[in-house]
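User: Just a sanity check before I run the rest of the batch. Below are the structure tokens for the first item. I only need the designed sequence back.
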């Protein structure tokens, strides 16, 4: 791509290669109707060998822990014996293909698997899983590996817990997640809204509204009589989490128990004053959208288990919003559309394609695996979330269709929710750290674009860029709502914001909502992914066993940790670390160095912040992958 000195017009090589690419990257609107996805994943988009091995390493850890929990020690002298016995059983029963030659090594070389510690040096089980994965790709999650999983889960704990200790017993060889110690605390519950796995829900309000008739009596029972609901609203200290989108969702039953979806309202407030360390406090919860006897207002004074039950209902709703909407729709599927359109409309030499390509690494492959495995009937979403699988897929569609691109620009998001002012809401780690990363990406993109576009007119004359923009929002294209400036891209400022949002979503936003899955959501007693009692339970006195029966049965809890730990453990590639020599234009080199320096400053700033607040590390640049690949 070159810019003429006389008119700044832009020319390209032959578009013949694009015609071929468009045949490779065709749209499909039926996998998750009516979302635009790639019809078939091309060979160029498949996972790398390194990615498969990272996945295999995590499978090994989960495999050994699950084996010992479900099968026990069986009188063996070592865990090695248990592993070997299981592998032989899997061979005999045909769960492991005999042609995988690595099995010989597994049975000959002694894995040093130590009780309470799974050695990071053990490669034999990694090699087994890698061999299976690489041989058949992720489709084996429905075939070979699924047979191993079925065998592995024989003998697993079942039924509802009689104490939280039952959940802790699921972690024999790996430590009980830290969240287990504090998840019932009100401060931790409130902190999830600003630094959890789904830190995008709260909105500043002046009052709870007619749907949620919280009174001064409710409010002052928590905040004291020297404060009032009206004063908190006027002073910008009231915040609402509203899960209305889940109202009317269809309850699921897979695999074997009735589950329940909730659409609660939860009110939070900040204490008066100017203390920069002030934290949100939970005030009241209503477990449905309509006030009245069916959904009483629950506060910390409603009784220990009623309050714990209501807080857990909010956590369940939050998880059921997070997975199909915040996570799948608004990171994976959103970025997937831009990947398809980029390959179809921008020539190989186009600087925008060159900039974006590393941020799409493995995204189409993981999205395809998600639609075939995770969000298919009988898959992980069907098993673990509250709603029926069809309803979860509908929520995904609603989540993307309601996510206007232009209003999703990060600073605008915070402004629209009224959470942008740190003087009003001083402790919001997701907001503060995300804006640091956003600014670093924004500056990098601006510097890069200015190498190739001198004026807004250059943008408007770039026919490939305009075709890209048109396809992204077209009904027979990407179907992304509210993209562009009147059907195209008119200004360099807009292009800068748009590309920043794409890269930020593919890297930092996905990191912020994906990696807490292991640390926070993996422990089912803290963040259940489904509820197993109706919200109407709160109409009577709630007991400890009611609370325990609300939580997932132990077999579901084990599956929840295994799936979310796997998804939250694979760190493949890193933001700002492009392959050596990737940018052939030598003018890019100092700009990239400046970007990497800025990211290091962000890292240092976040580490310093964590000395003054509860630790939040999900947006450390060193922990942000370059692309959505898990």
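Assistant: Here's the designed sequence for the first item:
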């Amino acid at each position: 791509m070159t810019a003429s000195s006389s008119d700044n017009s832009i020319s390209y090589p032959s578009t013949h290669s694009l015609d071929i690419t468009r045949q490779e990257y065709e749209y499909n609107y039926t996998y998750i109707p009516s979302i635009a996805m790639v019809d078939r994943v091309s060979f160029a988009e498949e996972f790398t060998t390194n990615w498969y091995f990272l996945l295999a390493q995590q499978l090994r850890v989960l495999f050994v822990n699950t084996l010992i929990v479900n099968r026990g020690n069986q009188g063996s002298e070592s865990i090695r014996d248990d592993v070997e016995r299981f592998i032989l059983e899997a061979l005999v029963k045909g769960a492991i293909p005999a042609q995988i030659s690595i099995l010989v090594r597994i049975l000959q070389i002694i894995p040093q698997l130590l009780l309470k510690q799974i050695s990071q040096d053990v490669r034999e089980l990694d090699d087994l899983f890698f061999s299976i994965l690489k041989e058949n790709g992720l489709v084996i999650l429905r075939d070979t590996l699924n047979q191993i999983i079925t065998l592995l889960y024989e003998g697993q704990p079942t039924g509802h817990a009689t104490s939280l200790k039952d959940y802790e017993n699921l972690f024999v060889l790996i430590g009980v997640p830290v969240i287990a110690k504090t998840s019932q605390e009100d401060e931790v519950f409130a902190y999830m809204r600003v630094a959890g796995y789904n830190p995008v829900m709260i909105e500043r309000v002046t009052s709870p509204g007619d749907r949620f008739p919280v009174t001064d009596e409710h409010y002052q029972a928590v905040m004291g009589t020297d404060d009032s609901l009206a004063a908190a609203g006027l002073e910008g200290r009231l915040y609402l989490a509203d899960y209305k989108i889940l109202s009317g969702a269809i309850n699921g039953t897979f695999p074997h128990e009735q589950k329940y979806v909730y659409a609660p309202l939860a009110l939070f407030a900040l204490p008066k004053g100017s203390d920069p360390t002030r934290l949100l406090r939970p005030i009241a919860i209503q477990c449905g959208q309509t006030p009245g006897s069916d959904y009483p207002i629950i506060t910390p004074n409603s009784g220990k288990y009623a309050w714990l039950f209501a807080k857990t209902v909010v956590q369940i709703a939050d998880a059921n919003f997070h997975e199909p909407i915040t996570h799948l729709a608004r990171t994976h599927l959103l970025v997937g559309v831009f990947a398809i359109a980029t390959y179809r409309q921008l020539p190989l030499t186009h600087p925008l394609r060159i900039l974006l390509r590393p941020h799409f690494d493995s995204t189409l492959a993981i999205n395809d695996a998600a639609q075939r495995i995770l969000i298919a009937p009988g898959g992980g979403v069907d098993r673990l979330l509250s709603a029926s699988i069809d309803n979860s897929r509908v929520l995904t569609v609603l989540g993307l269709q309601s996510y206007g691109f232009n209003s999703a620009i990060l600073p605008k998001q915070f402004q629209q929710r009224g959470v942008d002012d740190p003087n009003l809401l001083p402790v919001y780690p997701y907001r503060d750290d995300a804006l640091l990363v956003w600014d670093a990406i924004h500056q990098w993109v601006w510097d890069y674009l200015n190498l190739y576009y001198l004026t807004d007119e250059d943008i408007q004359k770039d026919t490939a860029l305009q075709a890209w923009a048109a396809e992204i929002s077209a009904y027979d294209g990407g179907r992304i709502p509210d993209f562009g400036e009147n059907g195209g891209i008119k200004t360099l400022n807009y292009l800068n914001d748009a590309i920043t949002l794409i890269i930020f979503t593919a890297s930092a936003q996905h990191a912020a909502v994906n990696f807490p899955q292991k640390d926070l959501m993996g422990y089912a007693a803290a963040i259940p992914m489904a509820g197993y009692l109706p919200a109407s339970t709160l109409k009577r006195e709630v007991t400890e066993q009611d609370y325990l029966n609300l939580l997932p049965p132990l077999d579901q809890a084990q599956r929840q940790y295994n799936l979310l730990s796997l998804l939250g453990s694979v760190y493949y590639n890193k933001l700002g670390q492009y392959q050596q020599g990737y940018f052939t234009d030598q003018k890019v080199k100092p700009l990239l160095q400046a970007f990497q320096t800025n990211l290091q400053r962000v890292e240092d700033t976040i580490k310093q912040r964590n000395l003054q607040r509860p630790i939040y590390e999900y947006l450390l640049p060193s922990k942000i992958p370059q692309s959505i690949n898990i």
